[in-house]
Write a structure and sequence with these properties.
single chain, Aminopeptidase, Glucose Oxidase, domain 1, ten-stranded mixed β-sheet, eight-stranded mixed β-sheet, 12 helices, Peptidase_M28, signal
């Protein structure tokens, strides 16, 4: 679909923005200066969640019509909630281009004249154009590189386990195993001036290879203007173990014609605003952040290929809608700004773009309350990231969040995932990060990972709706406290991320 068609479709959705309607939710009287917690309805969260995480949304992959469909749905719900459009040109949308590079389908690879099927027997680990016709040299170990000249030849060997294995139980463990092994082995081989590097999958890599293969097939995504990260060195390929005997033959030869396709797709942030009640403070914004995209259609698991992303991140998408309804019914002193970011799963692209191109004055953003995955795991536990050094950039904001939890929701707060030594590096994997890097007070609400993370099993039926309701209220109550405070939360002068 051409970009102009997407703009026209979005414009049609946004055209009704001038006619605001109420959400229709009933709420009991709220004491002055108190958040309208009762306005956040479990039933409304359930209804929204089951719509957004349904198979009809097809996983909402960034750069696809499915992501646009989800964004249009979010914008329409925001309009119905009474939120003002706060995107570009008086709409709820902020479009931005993303660049995708992938290996072209008409690329060809053959070993000793016998074709090898791309994405079934051979996987390019990054999109790299190359024409290769060269002999294959089989290595039994990296030490063999010292015994022969490999310049212009194809190096083949078994994928070696990384020296530092991923931590036990780490998310996407097999993918991290393969990524670490590839990085370690190719770094050791890159100075050999080889024409290509073929690494034969070991039993660990092949144990759960569907997701890994799909990642390689999809290629890379960047914001337009990012430095071109296409690898110009020798192409690196993962090869199915069944092809190892052919590569070990004395006269083995690789013939490859690898082509690359490049596309520019539109992705989009959805941006809405609920004005504050104070004539002066309403010029400032408490920003509630989440992402509306997920992984789309991918490798089949137990007969299901739709990665619905109910927890990641439909849970927060619908939570922000609920907070918006509450804010319009009972406005805080400062205004609430809602940004549903696009293309988060492709590398925080939507939040990076918004920080660089905010639709409000950047200085008016007093705090960012980001959420990612808030509907699973033990019902009485939750996590707050950005709560301890080196990730904490605003002690004042963290204290507001902790006080709101103590007053309203009483979760047992886990900060262990916020430690710099935690193997998941979870702090660096969600949309608060670009805001924190820009010096804006930012925290990250989450109920942490689970075995269904980035699988088709992340379905709406698995969400703990009561917990989702409590997490939504915690985010809302924290934002309310920020809104009501006479002084905006300050950044810690010594805050500095470790990477």
């Amino acid at each position: 679909m051409k970009k102009i068609h997407l703009y026209l479709f979005a414009a049609a959705v946004a055209a009704t923005a001038c006619t605001q309607t109420s959400s229709g939710s009933a709420t009991s009287a709220v004491a002055p200066g108190q958040p309208a917690l009762s306005a956040i309805s479990t039933e409304e969260l359930r209804e929204d969640l089951f719509t957004l995480a349904s198979d009809e949304m097809r996983g909402k992959r960034a750069g696809t019509v499915d992501e646009l469909r989800a964004a249009a749905w979010v914008a329409e719900q925001a309009r119905e909630a009474g939120l003002e459009p706060a995107g570009d040109d008086g709409t709820y949308f902020q479009f931005f281009p993303i660049s995708r590079t992938r290996v072209a389908d008409n690329s060809t690879i053959a070993i000793s004249g016998k074709p090898a099927t791309l994405w079934q027997q051979v996987w390019l680990t990054s999109p790299t154009e190359a024409r290769i016709e060269a002999p294959v040299v089989w290595l039994n170990a990296l030490a063999d590189t010292a015994r022969q000249n490999l310049e212009g030849k194809v190096v083949a060997m078994t994928l070696q386990p990384p020296t530092r294995m991923p931590a036990a139980g780490m998310s996407l463990w097999n993918y991290r195993y393969v990524a670490s092994a590839l990085r370690q082995q190719t770094n050791a081989l890159k100075n050999q001036k080889a024409a290509a590097i073929l690494l034969v999958t070991d039993s660990t890599a092949e144990a759960d290879f569907g997701f890994i293969a799909h990642v390689f097939e999809e290629g890379t995504y960047l914001l337009e203007g990012d430095a071109n990260q296409q690898n110009s060195a020798a192409p690196v390929m993962l090869v199915q173990s069944a092809l190892a005997p052919n590569l070990k033959q004395p006269e083995a030869k690789l013939t490859a014609n690898i082509k690359v396709d490049k596309y520019t797709y539109p992705s989009m942030n959805v941006v809405a605003r609920a004005p504050g009640s104070d004539p002066e403070l309403r010029r400032e914004h408490v920003l509630f952040s989440g992402h509306h995209d997920h992984d789309g259609i991918g490798a089949t698991v137990d007969g299901d290929s739709i990665y619905n992303g109910a927890d990641d991140n439909a849970s927060v998408t619908v939570a922000l809608l609920a907070i918006g309804r509450a804010w319009t019914q009972n406005p805080g002193k400062r205004s609430a700004l809602f940004v549903w970011h696009g293309a988060e799963e492709r590398g925080l692209l939507g939040s990076r773009y918004y920080v660089e191109h905010p639709t409000v004055e950047k200085e008016s953003i007093v705090a960012v309350l980001n959420g990612d995955m808030i509907g699973r795991n033990a019902p009485d536990s939750a996590a707050l990231l950005g709560a301890i050094p080196p990730h904490r950039n605003s002690t004042a904001l963290v204290e507001m969040a902790m006080q709101a939890n103590q007053q309203f929701t009483n979760f047992t707060i886990d900060t262990s995932w916020d430690e710099a030594s935690h193997p998941e590096g979870w702090y660096f994997r969600s949309d608060h990060l670009p805001y924190a890097r820009a010096g804006i007070p930012a925290i990250f609400f989450t109920t942490l990972l689970h075995p269904d993370y980035h699988t088709p099993r992340d379905e709406a039926e698995r969400i703990d709706l009561e917990k989702l309701t409590k997490m939504t209220r915690w985010m809302y109550a924290t934002g309310w406290a920020v809104s009501e405070a006479l002084q905006r939360p300050t950044t810690d002068p010594d805050a500095k991320l470790e990477r």
